[in-house]
Write a structure and sequence with these properties.
- The chain is mainly α and 384 residues long.
- The chain has one domain.
- The protein is built from 14 helices and three strands.
- A three-stranded antiparallel sheet has the order 1-2-3.
- A hairpin with a 2-residue loop joins strand 2 and strand 3.
- The relative contact order is 0.17.
Length: 384
């Protein structure tokens, strides 16, 4: 009992519903990966995901034991480490082909596999950008135009660095995190209107003078993938067929005669994991994914609302923006509502670095929930 008492006391301090949602997501993701055949190297996606989840939970629990304000005090170390990771990857990284022919130099080799540093940088960005926002909030400078420009410059650092790696999907996720966090902190709406107006004006110009023909084809082929089922529409067309083949209840999780077992959909274990749920578990399985992710997002917003300071709420909004954007873009890809951009479905897609780092984000949000003491009692000696 002496061993169990600290564990029991720990979980009493946590958001138990949040933990239940996360554990349900973990179990479901493993369930979907179990019937997928091993990779060409013979590695089981189920085993890799299980290891990643265990590492992720260990990291998450460690982060919950530290006051998030103390973590943010060392924003400069986090920023320096993240910058080092991206630059190192740009110089020494390796390219791994993802869905849609995306060939980004965004991975580094590790013993036994590869690691995508940009996934960890997302968590670092949650910390550094939240610190930036909280300092401006305390100084009542969030309405200052020069300070808002500096916030945009802060966000552009990771966006541009991953863009130069060829990983535009991750760059879009960073942009969505930036929007979510600045909106949650209370940056005035006129700045958002200006951003979207600039995008609306700039996109036609980029389409006419910057984008190449193959990029235009990729951006338009999703509208009718059946028109080019052997080339640009290949993956999305096959993905939609798999989703539809499951009908309402699915063809069975461990049915040996399925499109999943025959690897009909390329990269089904990652970018198109939703097609696996659609075929094997049908409409019910797809809706369960949506339900679990929706519950996770709403619970994150609830923790953000009860946060004692801007720093805590910004961390929550960063996690919310990351998970919501990845889910939206991934499901849009799978349902041919958006072009293929190599974005995985958070927590469900196979991938050790992505899965582990998402759980680290969960740990930061839980730290916000567990450390509700007044921010005045915490020393904030490192300021901008």
């Amino acid at each position: 009992m002496r061993v169990m008492k600290p564990i029991i006391n720990y979980f009493k301090q946590t958001d138990k519903l949040y933990w239940l949602i996360m554990l349900s997501i973990s179990a479901y993701s493993l369930l979907l990966l179990k019937p997928i055949p091993p990779s060409s190297s013979g590695r089981s996606y189920f085993t890799v995901q299980l290891i990643a989840i265990v590492i992720g939970y260990c990291g998450a629990i460690f982060l919950t034991l530290i006051d998030y304000r103390e973590i943010a005090n060392y924003w400069y170390l986090v920023a320096g480490f993240c910058l080092f990771l991206i630059v190192y990857t740009h110089i020494f990284g390796v390219a791994v082909t993802s869905s849609g022919g995306i060939n980004a130099k965004a991975w580094i080799k590790l013993p036994g596999g590869t690691f995508q540093p940009s996934e960890l940088v997302k968590i670092g960005f949650m910390i550094t950008f939240s610190k930036h926002l909280s300092e401006l909030k305390k100084r009542e400078l969030l309405e200052s135009f020069p300070q808002v420009i500096l916030l945009a410059c802060h966000a552009m650092v990771p966006i541009l660095l991953v863009h130069f790696q060829g990983d535009d999907g991750t760059a879009v996720i960073f942009f969505c995190m930036f929007l979510s966090m600045t909106f949650g902190a209370g940056v005035q709406l006129r700045y958002f209107a200006a951003v979207f107006a600039a995008i609306a004006i700039g996109f036609p110009i980029a389409w006419q003078y910057i984008l190449k023909d193959y990029q235009k084809m990729r951006l338009t082929s999703f509208l009718h993938p059946e028109n080019d089922p052997l080339k640009d529409g290949y993956q999305q067309y096959r993905g939609m067929l798999s989703i539809g083949s499951g009908q309402f209840w699915g063809r069975g999780l461990f049915n040996s005669d399925t499109r999943v077992s025959k690897k009909v959909v390329p990269v089904q274990e990652k970018d198109f994991i939703f097609s696996v749920a659609g075929e094997l578990l049908g409409f019910v399985g797809c809706m369960l994914i949506l339900l679990l992710l929706t519950l996770l997002l709403f619970r994150t917003l609830r923790i953000a609302r009860k946060s004692p300071d801007c720093l805590g709420s910004s961390i929550c909004f960063g996690f919310f923006g990351m998970v919501a954007a990845q889910a939206l873009f991934n499901l849009g890809m799978c349902l041919s509502l958006l072009p293929v951009m190599g974005v995985t479905l958070p927590f469900f897609s196979a991938g050790g670095s992505s899965a582990s780092c998402l759980y680290f984000g969960f740990g930061l949000v839980m730290s916000v929930y567990m450390h509700k003491v007044s921010p005045d009692k915490v020393s904030l000696q490192h300021k901008f």
